[in-house]
Amino acid sequence: QKQERQIGDTTSIRTLIPESKQGLLKNVSMIANMNYAFRNEFVDGAYTQSRFKNEQFRLEIRGQVHEKVFFRFRDRYTRAQTSESLDNLSRSVDLAHIRVDINSRWSISAGKMCADWGAWEFDWNPIDIYEYSDIVEYADNFLSGVGFTYTPSAKNQWTFQILDSRTKTFEELYGTQPNYTASKAPLAFVSNWRGSLFDGKLKTIWSYSLFNEAQDLSGRSANMNYIALGNEFNFFPRFRFIYDFKWSDERLDRTGIVSQTIPDDLFPYSVSNTVYIGHWINLRYIVSQKVHLTFVGMLDIANWNNSFNDPENLTGEQNIRNAWGFIPAVEVYPWSNLNFRFFANWVGRVYDYSDYAQNRFGAQNSTTGRFTVGFITPLGIF
Amino acid sequence: QKQERQIGDTTSIRTLIPESKQGLLKNVSMIANMNYAFRNEFVDGAYTQSRFKNEQFRLEIRGQVHEKVFFRFRDRYTRAQTSESLDNLSRSVDLAHIRVDINSRWSISAGKMCADWGAWEFDWNPIDIYEYSDIVEYADNFLSGVGFTYTPSAKNQWTFQILDSRTKTFEELYGTQPNYTASKAPLAFVSNWRGSLFDGKLKTIWSYSLFNEAQDLSGRSANMNYIALGNEFNFFPRFRFIYDFKWSDERLDRTGIVSQTIPDDLFPYSVSNTVYIGHWINLRYIVSQKVHLTFVGMLDIANWNNSFNDPENLTGEQNIRNAWGFIPAVEVYPWSNLNFRFFANWVGRVYDYSDYAQNRFGAQNSTTGRFTVGFITPLGIF
Amino acid sequence: QKQERQIGDTTSIRTLIPESKQGLLKNVSMIANMNYAFRNEFVDGAYTQSRFKNEQFRLEIRGQVHEKVFFRFRDRYTRAQTSESLDNLSRSVDLAHIRVDINSRWSISAGKMCADWGAWEFDWNPIDIYEYSDIVEYADNFLSGVGFTYTPSAKNQWTFQILDSRTKTFEELYGTQPNYTASKAPLAFVSNWRGSLFDGKLKTIWSYSLFNEAQDLSGRSANMNYIALGNEFNFFPRFRFIYDFKWSDERLDRTGIVSQTIPDDLFPYSVSNTVYIGHWINLRYIVSQKVHLTFVGMLDIANWNNSFNDPENLTGEQNIRNAWGFIPAVEVYPWSNLNFRFFANWVGRVYDYSDYAQNRFGAQNSTTGRFTVGFITPLGIF
To answer: CATH classification of A32-373, choosing from 2.60.40.1080, 2.40.160.10, 3.50.50.60, 2.70.70.10?
Structure first.
């Protein structure tokens, strides 16, 4: 018998595999999550460039690998493979976790996973998003930790997670902070309720998250609080409406849009006391099984509550910018037995800075747009 | 029912997979493309070093994933994983595309794919190449775009592709150009004819490509034109002869051999008006089913048509260098039911610079060689 | 018939796959090697931080792909993907090799593989190691080369390997050496005996390795010699005891602990004549099938035999540091049909520097510890 090195004692224990691998295989899938597009890009109304772009390419392996154990792994090929200083795993890896199903109601997950602070936008497969709203775009959405899920019925699901609050060190993320020191237990606590009300006519994903990131010099915690309230309305057979509300109160600017707007010669690190508020709507009208019309509208408001400390802030203005987005799209599903769609859309963004941000920080309003045609598919390889 | 996050709505549509995955699996393959060798290296006739080298290791997944959809993905583990500035995908990823078969004659491909500017050398699996000729070696062979293929019969196939002409930005590739500005639509247009004539005794891969990369200050396009004419002759049962002719006319030096020869203190960016001409022959003599003898000969000519502008170019010489290559090899196929061969070869290269390049740019003639033993296999994992 | 590019002539030869892929598949496995943990870390007795960490995540594909050919590939997602200067393959790739089984006694391996200089600690799957001893931790354990294995009976196995002695260039590894030049054939020669004596009550992994890395200015080889003697004792049904002895004599400091202790302003490159000695014991007490108690103890001694040349070394002290480790752990296996365990452990380390190292190099003694809970599994995906 030839023996390979560093194989581990799988033979003595794993009698499951050799006999029933055939059967087991049916429950494991490999998926190529693709969003591929030809983009025609505009800045401030002027055409700038055309190009083919692999918007998303994430290879995924998932499935039931044991009666009680589910496995999921997803890796992006649009980001460098690294070794992160806090959780050790590559930043290109979205997911690398197991889920143990204790019984039909309780399960435990461990590993790198989706932080469950979704409203609907974040809960979707990334390939379904033409452009993320600011708060989701700038967040660290895949974190290592442990999660507990309780599913008392098909109508309600409760999740509670304890996660690393970041993948990098405090200094890498926030710069050298003069007034804050890193937390010794930089954890995020996430709670989530998924409801299905009125026979599924209203579906919710509501979550509240607390990030314990740092303390100030007097020892008080400098936390981040995040609330997301996602609501899906299915009152008409062919029409779906979703409204997500997001509110992020950040003692240290984690989202970073405010800190990026402020020039480094003023504050070469993340500033304090920012608040981000997001509104996101999604409409889908099913013209026929093959043709759907969709529209996404979004508004992200970035405020700096500490701006009153700025002696040159004469008006007390706290708003830094409002970012608008609107994405009308046509989607065509050519096959009834494959989740595959061609799409054409317009992605319009308007970045509207406050007078304070313009005068004090030199921020400039701008618009971007792109007309895109492409395809989206979570392509099942096996 | 436990629900994972960011999974996408595959359940409602993809009825194909759960029922017939067993059958589907037969059409999907994973392949480890390996070229592994022990090299003994020589420079200018002197022995320099010996080492084991993973010449090629490209993992590939491909297959029919739906009645109408073919998928192919190939990633190298001999190159860093990145996120490219133009097409977003890692440079280590050769292929990440789908092919939709509209009918038996027409198909459309979209994603990152082989640019179809082959003659025979480029059309082969990279593991079959002991050393690429200059023009192929320095080209960006895997690009994102869309392709159309028309196959009227087994004797002819026509392909037309529109591709990003590069994966990086103009500045990353050509340096800061004083006389050219980047094209807003940096696309490559590729047309290709594959023919099988005289009962397959003559097989052709002929292509013409146009790259739209830049314009000069007066607004005229600065294109690259590339012609490759590949011809395979099978007039004898045990003997195959291939001749590839390649001709690349580059308004901006894309191949880069000329620009690399010119020191940066003269021109710290890619120069104008280069022409590369390649001749490549391949002979294979099948001694027996288990033993093959092969020989590759190649000559790549690098010319700088703009050299007359150089006031110190007194002779009007345009040639910069001629690079010769000759690779005799013995290949042994131990098994009739596995595409696996051991090989031993000699890879000889002669780099012969013109008097102009030697005197003006300090270029020096050199030869390299290596005696190599190893194995080649596109190993089917499943 | 649609033909993809760069596919290679697999169709004409590989008749094996289409017909018997179903059967073949049973012999190929994909494994997610995971060691995932929540760590509470201490330095010099003081609590420093808590975090979830993906200690190990290595995806593996292995199996019999042909009657005579075995394939194995393993890649880590906790390290950047690179292209190494010597063997070309990414450093994140542990394994990428084939094994050809000539007959029941002889086999040949080629590719990137485990250097077979194991004693028991190194021979295990990395997920089974809570913390490596110094000599193994600092070694380059995965190298490209070729290996021969002779297995006359179930009681004895002999392996001989010829490997690249490193994956990087001499300068990258050792710095600019004033007194040594790189070997032209930087190879490692590894011989290994695995024995099973007294009905398996004593199992051995004994190895001797010679690294040919450099020569000094007078032309004499500057080799590294490494001996590892692993001994596993199974005299009681519920109790296993292992003792590994390691001894590494390095003309040029490959392990590097001594060179790292010496400040760069003294010697900004790897020093000469270091010796590392390692003792490692492992105890396992099987309380029940589901509960195991384990203990690891280790001592790594780092000596600098050249220290007598240091005029400020008045005592002739050669010892630089002794590093102790002790790891008590509880392991719980919840399922009898899956190799999966939860664990809780304490990983204690003591770094004890000699008076010479403290006074001359400013080295400081320290202790680290962590209390960890997590899980370990070589999870079979298919």
So the answer is: 2.40.160.10
